[in-house]
Amino acid sequence: MIKILMIVPFEEMTELVCQVWDEIEQQEQLTPSEDRYELTVTQASTTQEFLSSNPDADVIIARGGTAYDLQHKHFHIPVIELMISANDILQTIFAVRERFGDLPAAVIGSPNMFEGLDRILEFFKINCKIFYLKENTEEEIYRNVEQAVSSGCQVIIGGIRGCIYAENFGVHHTLLCSSHDSIWNALMSARQLGVTSRRNREFVLSNQAMLDNAFEGLISLDKDHRITALSTAAQKILNLAPGNWYIGMHIQDVLHAPRITAAVCSSQSYIDEIVPYGNTHLSFKKVALLLHGEEVGCVLAFLNATQLQETEIKLRGKIYERGHIAKYTFESIVGVSPALQAAIDTAKAYASTASDILIIGQSGTGKELFAQSIHNASSRSAQPFVAINCAALPENLLESELFGYVAGAFTGANKNGKLGLFEQAHRGTIFLDEISEIPLALQGRLLRVLQEREVMRLGDDKVIRVDVRVICATNKDLYTQVKKGLFREDLLYRIDVLDFRLPPLRERKGDVPLLAEQFISRFCQRAGREPLPLEPDAAELLSAQLWPGNIRELQNFCERMVVLCHSSSIEADFVSQLLSHSIHTMNTASSPSRRSANTIDTAKIRKALEETGDNRQAAAERLGISRATLWRYLKRMEEEP
């Protein structure tokens, strides 16, 4: 729908305008158009009166001083002037002469109404003076009527306001009317211009929507560096009052920022730099608009530090979708032994700091479990947790995984490049497991990253700042590795800021039954079978083992028990049987530090049991064998005649 708004100075014109519009609509039915039109007629005798109504249309029709004002004020809606032809004026003057005789008269209006009228009046020897309105305001109309009356004019010809003031001065007056043909021509022109105006307004609205929803603050300037458009984001970034008050103003009068103004007014067609603004700094860009090689304006783009940080957080949030999140907390750690509780207390204390941490412990003691728990208890818990096993990848792949690479960095590289793990862990935690296995050639580069918190992707020359907390883990004595020349001493001192040791499972025997019950319950649930209770004797037997593979070995053994157990509970005989076939037990039995049951006669075993009151744990210790070995020997004693 194309909206046409027509301003009439007095009510009497409305009827004539509606009559002409009906005639046009009837003619339109003979030659239908795809466009639809709507006409609204409003009465306003001055420009201020019209603007106070907050008009909304695709095209406006106005006459006289109102048209003159709107056109010269570059009103944002196109304006078509309802022309008052010389013929209209002459007809009105002749009507005045017939009514009032040859009285001196005055015609009052804007300059656009009376072009060439003075020559016509002189030609016909009509006693009529012309008074031009500099602006279409009540004060200006009153001043001209007063001046006309003072000069001896006895008839005032003009708009509704002029006639009202003439009435107050006690002189004759006549409205200056527009003819049928003038109204017809204006309406037809408005229909044609309305189509183009509608398309332009849709385009401007679309552009403004893009401006207002753009992340960057955008300002458009003309060739004189006056503002033609300014986005909502720019108002927020630059702390400007909302509204359109800035349109047409010079950029220096709006921003009061000499550094930015100097950049805008320079001859450079492209500028990209960081500039101070108020209490912050802005990322500022200028892009010139060139037409036939001549600069006809420019576009300015702004970003502040807060926006960059917010965007960065959103982008880093996408990392969670790729699984870079810590799942475990300190509540996930099972065990009540003093050694374990001491490690937990130390880890909790470290979690409240920002320093790097080194976790020392044998394989399978839960180093990553502790690393994730520390991350989730720290101020970085809402950020990524990125883990990598440094022994799992060869040197070239490990380097690209840690630091990333740009497109074309090496054969087979992703065409879009790749973020390194340090970048992915930005604002969060990176866990470097088995740090001792990093090749010497890569240790130097890692040291620089840890010291400067800056990474450089493979094949790139740009430095990228990262904010990460580093947690390293090792199952080796790094000081021994340094002496052997396998680990850099400076890197050791860099990562060994806060350290703690995880106890092996053999030092926390009281936790074995708790862990075993949890593992058994988990594997039963996964297998879809009823829970298998762990009998006390079976739990004691598990606690007696050394478990050189620590929790991981115990977990695997529990899974094996669930798979192979066909009874309603896990009993000691079943555990003993499985232990006798495990690699762990065979290695233990063959160890020179242990005595085999085959070397102990039955009498000694029975004597040890008698002396300990059938306490099998105490008897095994007295005999210098493991509880499992004692169980296996007793089993054979039962089977032998």
Protein architecture, described:
By secondary structure, this protein is of the alpha/beta class. It folds into 5 domains: 2-83 and 182-194, Response regulator (Rossmann fold, 3-Layer(aba) Sandwich); 86-177, PrpR receptor domain-like (Rossmann fold, 3-Layer(aba) Sandwich); 214-306, Beta-Lactamase, CATH 3.30.450; 323-503, P-loop containing nucleotide triphosphate hydrolases (Rossmann fold, 3-Layer(aba) Sandwich), CATH 3.40.50; 507-639, Helicase, Ruva Protein, domain 3. The chain contains 27 helices and 22 strands. A 5-stranded antiparallel beta sheet has the order 10-9-13-12-11. Strands 15-18-21-14-22 form a 5-stranded parallel beta sheet. Helix 6 (138-150) crosses helix 7 (160-169) and helix 23 (572-580) packs across helix 27 (627-639). The N and C termini lie far apart (108 Å). Residues 586-599 have low confidence and may be disordered.
